[in-house]
């Protein structure tokens, strides 16, 4: 059996090793943050989000970082190709209202069925989804892009709708109440044929596969994504939100 002093010595060495590793990581992080070490922006976690760049393991971190900073978010949004204008901050009631918000009129490559008010963070996630998931899924599954997104609205001062019991609400504010959510009901293809979540979600045809890919792709860029497989309330739309609990159903 080793002597007690020998065991203490080993524990001391292990602690020193961990302290050294932690110090090295902190030094590297500070060097990256301060810019004293130059690495490609795609692999620098502190570099601004490049919306056009192919997503990698750092994209989610950069996206969340941009959404949390109003100025950084608006700067990133300006490079997306979305058509929008900023709107004044507004409070409409307890737990309701919005800040750092835009009126989104169209995506980079598709129209919206009507303009809608979205927080900058939600609009930035929308831009990433459209460019890196939605349109690639349309080309892959349908052989053509989608040209219109049909939605059921974004901002609404209301509680979460559970669809359970007579009250049908949870007593907790929905992310719609802060313009952090968008409900997507369907799409119009380049050949003008409509695809709806309610009609085309089930099955193995091209339209269903496209909707499945669009839903899964949204989970990469939004914090919460709910669809027909979640509950009956979402049988006819995708609920896309930022800022809430992470959920992909």
Short description:
The protein is α+β, with helices and mostly antiparallel strands.
Task: Spell out the blueprint of helices and strands.
Elements: H1 4-34, H2 59-68, H3 70-77, E1 83-87, E2 90-93, E3 96-98, E4 101-106, E5 111-119, H4 120-142, E6 146-153, E7 159-161, E8 169-173, E9 181-189, E10 194-196, H5 197-200, H6 206-218, E11 224-226, E12 238-241, E13 247-248
Parallel strand pairs: 5-6, 11-13
Antiparallel strand pairs: 1-4, 2-3, 4-5, 6-9, 7-8, 9-10, 9-12, 11-12
Helix pairs in contact: 2-3, 2-4, 3-4, 4-6
**Low-pLDDT residue spans:** none
Mean pLDDT: 88
Shape: globular
Structural class designation: alpha+beta
Q: How would you characterize the largest beta sheet?
A: 9 strands, mixed
How many structural domains can be distinguished in the coordinates? 2
Helix content: 25-40%
Output the radius of gyration.
22 Å
Number of DSSP strands? Answer: 13
Multimeric state of these chains?
Answer: single chain
β-strand percent reads 25-35%
N to C succession of SSEs: HHHEEEEEHEEEEEHHEEE
Please report the number of helical segments: 6
